[in-house]
Every structure is written in structure tokens, then in C-alpha cells.
Amino acid sequence: MGQGHQYRASRWLLALVPLSTIGLMLAPILAPSSIDQTYTSYLVFAAAALGILLPVVAILMFTSEWSQRTVFTTFTQEPRRIRVIKAKLAASLLLGGGAAVLGGVVTAAGLGVAAASGRALEANLTAGAAAGFVLAALLNVGFGVALGSLLQSSAAAIAASFVLPTATGLLVVASKPVGQWLDSSTAFNWVLQNQWGAHVPQIALAVILWVVVPLASGIVRTMHRDVT
Length: 228
Hints:
Elements: H1 3-30, H2 39-68, H3 71-77, H4 81-116, H5 127-151, H6 154-174, H7 176-182, H8 184-192, H9 200-224
């Protein structure tokens, strides 16, 4: 995939984020009898859409230069690699924050449509649930950033972003007590639904294992990798 093609793919993915969010928001609107009609339930559907595409966009942000071999130009213009890394991290956080705002707007619109249809909606949205939604979006972006910075290959990182959660999800099925300590999806879902309770140690381990460690390793690799 050429550099122009990859940039176009990134733009298409960014365009798909709101479209997929709107598409999933139709589920609770069109199936009121099988889906809880609550504020937080609608917010979960918005989060599901963001969780699928946001890591991929973050990955492309960190891998495009390595995959397309344009890092020589980047690090010639700015030899201090840590500044490039910081700029990408800041852009990723803005991406996650913007996506959370988008999800909130789409959720509000979905709730408005549902209310206009005359159905009863349980207004159970709390500050904790709203904060969990934002934090879950940031964690999904962080997961993509971590994989992208570590693997420095678009194809490998994107594949890993789908394979790893699937593999750890199967581990939850095989051994729930063990899997819940290792599965990022389970941990991020607890954050999303504001179910900290007794899950703080598992959430902390998942964040360290799937965000902090690979990101730190990726930063070290970027700082020392030869540019050819």
C-alpha cells in the first residue's frame, strides 16, 4: 500500500467512525423490546463503535512512516525523536477525546429520537458512567498507539489489534478467573460501565500489560531503531 493510499485509508476510517457510531445507535432505537432503554445502554452502543475503529486509526498514525519508509524525512526535519513521539501521543489523546465527544453527541441524538417516539427512557447516566465512557475511548486509542509504536508495521499492528483481544477473550471462556486478569476487552468494558468495585487490580494489570508496557517498549525501540 503506497503512502497516498494509506493516508486515504486513514481518512476513510475517520469518516467511518461517525457512520458506524450512528449505525450501531440504530440498534437500541429499532429494538426497544430486546435492548434496555436507558441512557447508559445507549452509550454502550456508541462505545462499541468507537472501540472497533479507533485503535486502527491510532495504529496508522504511528506506523505509516515506518511502513512507507518516510521516517528518514521525519527524523531529518526533527532529529529529536522524542518530540515526534510526544506530538503523536498528543494527537492520539485529542483523537480519543474528540471521538468521545462524537459518541456523546450521537448518543444524545439517539436518545432524542427514542424520546420523540414516546417510549420511556431511564435517565440513569451518572458522572461516573460518563467519565468511564471517555476513559474507555482513551484506553482503546492507547491500545492502538501501544501496538503501533511497538510493532511499527501497519499490517502487523492492525492484525494484532484484532487477534489479541480475540485470543484473550477465548481465554476468558476457557478459564474465567485467569482470563479476566489478562483480557483487555473485559477490563475496558468494566471501565466503560463504571464497574470498578473489586476489579481495580484486573483493570490496572490490563492497562499495564496492553498499553503501558508495549508503549514504553515501542518508545525505546523508536529511539534506538536505525533509519534506512
